[in-house]
Amino acid sequence: MILILYFQYKIEDLEGLCNQLMAIFRTIGEALFYSTQNQSVGIILSDVQTRTSIDFDAYPYFSKISIDSYIDINDLTTLLGNRNISVRQSQEDIENMNEIQNNIITCRRFPQRHMLPAESRDTGALIAKSFPFAKKMLKFAYHIIGLMSFYPRWKAIHLRIEGDLMQLSAIRDVGLETFTKSQLQQTIDMISITPNLSAVYIASGIQDEKYNNAVNIISKEFPHLAITRKKDILKASPAIKEEFEALCLEEQALIDWLVCVGAPFFAGLHASSFAYLAGYMRHYRGFDKETTHLYPDYQPCWDAWFPRV
Questions:
Q1: Against a cut of 0.90, is the pTM above it?
Q2: Nearest-CA neighbor of 249 among 158, 155, 162?
Q3: What letter would DSSP give residue 225?
Q4: Is the peptide bond preceding residue 307 cis, with omega within 30 degrees of 0?
Q5: Any idea which GO molecular function terms this record carries (predicted)?
């Protein structure tokens, strides 16, 4: 019997969308590496998780959702099958489970080992150009990007000021109000550095009141700039908007993230996994460097974990 080495991601604690995606991408990267070492390799898919409220005002903060909220499993099976990597949707799908328990390697978002630049580049290119996100999520993202294309020149900006940030000690130390003011000023700066913008797409999960306050502040600086978000854009398509509102919060965040990945210009906080991973994808998709802005604070681990070679 051929013994297969399986890789499985682990998601826990307060890991939102892009920390989860990093764990999944890491698992695929490890499987790709070992598949080139004369090793029979597979990956095991498992559930992911979604937050139950935007500001973590309901406990438990996360609940499980199926991996097919993020991934087209059939397309992933084909993609990795072409690299001689098998895909299983759960451990129960594997025959002779007792014989493979010692051959399952658990992956988190951080590196398992030292990766050479060529490997990082090849893995990044495969993920950025070929990773099969769920078709339903892509449909929403492409619809939004298509409608935003009405504007001659637009930029997506990730505005990370949700209340769940208070789980981070650094944010508690400065206070959410002070942090929010800082992020709004950074947003204004990120708009200023891209000349001749006609519109800005705000990628954020904040509630209406907080969003409207942010828009008012930005509009005072740029009174002729159109400012919008997914919720507003989808009003023009009632059936699609109704379908969107039935999605869980992490699925809605994935749509925002895919819009940021595909936007002609993008800016976001470097310390946020959401913004950094969007920049990572844009890098390997060949976007011009000047179209992506990741502003301070700097988070060195992202560049070490998922380098843009």
A1: yes
A2: 162
A3: -
A4: no
A5: glycosyltransferase activity
Name the nearest CA neighbour of 150 among 201, 81, 184, 103. Answer: 201
Q: Which ranges constitute the DSSP H helices of 62-206?
A: 73-81, 97-100, 117-130, 135-148, 169-174, 176-192
Tokens describing residue 103: 């051959």
The strands making up 85-88's β-sheet, listed across from edge to edge, are 85-88, 41-44, 5-9, 104-107
Res 38: pLDDT: 85
Q: Using the 8-state DSSP alphabet, how is residue 288 labeled?
A: -
Tell me which residue of 145, 19, 123 sits closest to 70, measured CA to CA. Answer: 19
Task: State which H helix or E strand residue 230 sits in.
Answer: helix 230-233
Please name the helix (run of DSSP H) or strand (run of DSSP E) that holds residue 240, with its range, or none.
helix 238-245
Instruction: Give the per-residue pLDDT at 58.
Output: 87
The CA distances from residue 3 to 6, 31, 91, 109, 149, in Å, are: 10, 14, 15, 26, 51
pLDDT tens sequence across 267-283: 999 999 999 999 999 99
CB atoms within 10 A of CB 157: 28
Burial 275-284 (b: 16+ CB within 10 A, else e): bbbbbbbbbb
Contacts for 36 with CB less than 8 Å, ≥ 6 apart? none
Helical (H) or strand (E) element with 41 = strand 41-44
- Residue 233, both tokens: 């854009």
Domains of the chain, first to last? 5-130 (no CATH), 135-305 (3.40.50.11350)
Which of these, 204, 187, 194, lies nearest to 291 by C-alpha position?
A: 194
Q: Write out the two tokens for 83.
A: 């690299």
Question: Which string of DSSP letters, residue by residue, matches 63-105?
Answer: EEE-GGGTB-HHHHHHHHHTTTEEEESSGGGSSSHHHHGGGEE
Give the integer Cα–Cα distance in Å for 28 and 276.
19
pLDDT band of residue 103 (cuts 50, 70, 90) is confident
